[in-house]
Amino acid sequence: MVVSSQDARFKAGDEVLVTGYEMGVAHDGGFAEYARVPADWVVPLPQGLTLFEAMALGTAGFTAALAIHRLEQNELTPDKGKVIVTGATGGVGSLAIQMLSGLGYHVVALTGKDGEHDYLKSLGAGEILPRGEIDLHGTRPLEKAQWAGALDAVGGDTLAWLTRTMQQNGVIASFGNAGGVELHTTVFPFILRGVRLIGVDSAATAMPLRREIWRRLASSIGTGLRPRQLAQVAHTVPFAELPQAFLRLLQGHARGRTVVGIKPAS
Ligand SMILES: NC(=O)c1ccc[n+]([C@@H]2O[C@H](COP(=O)([O-])OP(=O)(O)OC[C@H]3O[C@@H](n4cnc5c(N)ncnc54)[C@H](OP(=O)(O)O)[C@@H]3O)[C@@H](O)[C@H]2O)c1
Q1: pTM for the predicted model, two decimal places
Q2: Which are the contacts of 173, defined by CB distance < 8 A and separation ≥ 6?
Q3: Which helix (H) or strand (E) holds 213?
């Protein structure tokens, strides 16, 4: 909510959101109750979203939607085949599964958490692929072609395995490095199967596309990407309990999205 503005585009009382621009990373204020930010970073809250829902989506929801948008720009449609989501129980993964299944895709959720299969199915995953069941260290440059599309939160050996297992003309959106930053693959997926590897950088997305993606996130009609079960994915932690929440993340026990309650409970 805008308290005051020196920019004519915004006025006190407007509901707005900011993600990216290294907010809370290179710039302090990610957990502040009040923050002064450049007007060029600010997106008016799209109709159909509450402020809570906007932050339950947050950078993760925006990144999932942007990655799907990029796959669509590369001709991915539900009739082309299965779409695999890696890091499936994470914030981006949980939201991407709902968005893709809402658009009619057959979604395969790749996860390391054996106890979360029912959760992933409830979000709309058509199949669960346990991480322990795949050979991430195969040496053949091409393996059985399985995926028309892929959203990759993990990077490293998982991304290399994706390049080897994409269908002809398959498209991978790479946005994460939860499992590693190096990529050891060959050119064969690209020159023999026409595989495309698309990079996704949510932080620097230009404002016109940024607004378009948020408009899609707020709508469940047509090409809308609004997740059906946002409440199921997001839980709130009080500011004072952030250290424990970070520990769960680092230990690999976290699931879905965490919204921080900045104000102390009154
Ligand atoms: N490019 C961008 O603009 C952008 C924007 C947002 C986030 N990101 C990046 O995208 C990634 C996902 O973000 P997030 O918010 O979804 O993170 P998150 O909530 O921490 O989820 C990451 C998921 O990855 C899987 N994972 C974690 N460690 C792993 C490992 N060592 N090997 C394989 N899988 C592992 C886990 O899922 P399972 O247990 O289900 O396998 C985990 O839930 C992060 O690397 C983040 O930095 C990038």
Answers
A1: 0.96
A2: 67, 68, 70, 71, 149, 150, 151, 152, 198, 200
A3: helix 207-218
CA nearest ligand 1 atom 31, residue: 179
pLDDT in tens, the chain (266 residues): 999 999 999 999 999 999 999 988 899 888 888 999 999 999 999 999 999 999 999 999 999 999 999 999 999 999 999 999 999 999 999 999 999 999 999 999 999 999 999 999 999 999 999 999 999 999 999 999 999 999 999 999 999 999 999 999 999 999 999 999 999 999 999 999 999 999 999 998 999 999 999 999 999 998 999 999 888 889 999 999 999 999 998 998 888 899 999 876 55
170 within ligand 1 shell (Cβ under 6 A): no
In the reported structure, the alpha carbon of residue 155 is separated from the centroid of ligand 1 by a whole-number distance in angstroms of: 9
> In ligand 1, which atom is closest to the CA atom of 66?
3
Q: What structural domains and CATH numbers belong to the chain?
A: 16-58+206-255 (no CATH), 60-199 (3.40.50.720)
**CB of 89 sitting under 6 A from ligand 1:** yes
Residue nearest to atom 39 of ligand 1 (CA): 112
